[in-house]
Amino acid sequence: MTGSSALLQSELLPEALDISFKLVPSILVIGMLGLFLTIGYVFRVADTDNMWVAGRSIGNVENGMAIGANWMSAASYLGMAASIALAGFYGLVFVVGWTTGYFILLIFLAAQLRRFGKYTAPDFVGDRFNSDTARAIAAVTTFLIGFVYAIGQAKGMALVGLYIFGNYGAYVPGLDGYQVMVVAMMVVTVGYLTLSGMLGATKNQTVQYTILIFAFVLGLFAVGYTNGYSTVLPQLEYGALISQLGSEFSEPFASSSYYLWVATTFSLIVGTCGLPHVLVRFYTVESERTARWSTVWGLFFICILYWSAPAFAAFGTDLYSQNVNPTYGDPGMTGAASEVIVVLAAQLSNLPEWFVGFVAAGGIAAAIATVAGLFIAGSSAISHDIYTNIINEDATQRQQIFVGRLSIVALGALTTLAALNPASSIAALVGYAFSLAGSVLFPMFFLGMWWENANRQGALAGMTTGLTLWSIPMINQIVPTYIGSLEAPLSAGLAQWMPAIGSALITLPIVFIVTIAVSMATDEPSLETKRIVRQCHSPEPMGQQETAEDVVADGGEEVATDGGRAADDAGADGGRAADDDAATEE
């Protein structure tokens, strides 16, 4: 290895991790990746319905598993345990924030989004607010979320890949071993996504969920039993260890402020409700009932891992302290080691090499599953929302799919370049994407679905405000890390009160106020738009391929939204036609 590669390795490689080629784990992972490619090929798409929403044919359990795989990224499989291991109590912010967001989705958005019935998150924004500009801003935001979020996934895949395949930095000029693995893993991921689209990605995600959850839970049970930490349920028994791990692990806010915990939790909750690759899962199901139940199943599948992550973090922290160095203090556990604490715990337990490789393979499956959802959402934003709806309205399905696949390749290339030298930990990188989703998209979904008077001008003002405010802490904390002459953060005060990972606590209320104020100061949306919003809350079932817009266009009944009676908007709308008045009073 060259001297420059050695320098990079010292910063990026986890200490104590056995980085060498391992035959059986390599066969396991190569077989797994081959399976993903095969599924992608078998379920390759030729039309836009299957490309973007899987033909709206996915059932609730299958969609729940896809939601789980889509959601439980490298940040959940690796980063959450890493954060708990290093920051103790503060690390639980990810468990609390990410789980709570799904209850809001279940109650306020899942069924309503299915009834609205579009293809993408920007599709909803553009059609609900009757604005191609709003659609474009939402599409760019979706692409940006996918890019920022996927950097953490690429980093997680590369770190785990190093354990399985070893260090090949000496064989590729200009790249170290970590960077070689980033490129290799991203090439495989982009390869199968360009074939499969949403249909193949969904089928893959059910397989990926099965792999990752068995790898994580079986790894946890094996580590707990082998070391005498647990006998039956490690998720409950790990508490006996906590007093031995030091105050940094057990004392609330010993390593961070209460304000940062609240800000981060809030951003993760609202960010969950604004992530395009999560919201699009509600467009893939047969009905609004299926959307609700798939959310319940998804939350159940997610909680299996989330109940287990703190236990894995405790076991790994104790094993690291016994076998490597004290976890806390100087020098303490590095961030690189913490991010593979799940794999490291299995390795330090002297479990069979093939079994440790299986645990590592679960991390790769988790990262690839999430990248699949992110890239499908990002490519659909470019192909469907910008190219087809704004640039070329006469685009054929072949042209749309071609542009979508090009977008996947472009997103993959950008992600790979950024992941070669990541600015933060896996969990933090994902947190930045959540802050963006919570600042820009969630307000539009919530207000657009629950306040029929939210209009085009309000949406444009709110989204622009959200993007601007989100950019400020990112410039303050993240941009300087890529510029050698600057030291991050530029302003310590701003970083304290508006942290990049928790900026939505400040930005979201401002965006809500701006959107509401501008909407109230300008003309109300059309009566047709209001009826579509009301139809999203109707108890009447709709057909598998039907949308709220279709029902309204077909003269569907008005929906009671005001104390059990339909609101009479004809007068407010300047005297609509008589048939509109009649429909309103039905």
From TrEMBL:
Q: How is it placed in the membrane, per its record?
A: Multi-pass membrane protein
Compartments in which it is found: Membrane
Say where the protein is mainly found. membrane
- Molecular function terms, GO-annotated: transmembrane transporter activity
Q: In the UniProt record, does the keyword Transmembrane occur?
A: yes
Q: What NCBIfam families does this protein map onto?
A: Na_symport_lg
Its signal peptide is none
Q: Which family does it belong to?
A: Belongs to the sodium:solute symporter (SSF) (TC 2.A.21) family.
Q: Report biased composition (Acidic residues) as residue ranges.
A: 547-560
- Protein name per the record: Na+/solute symporter
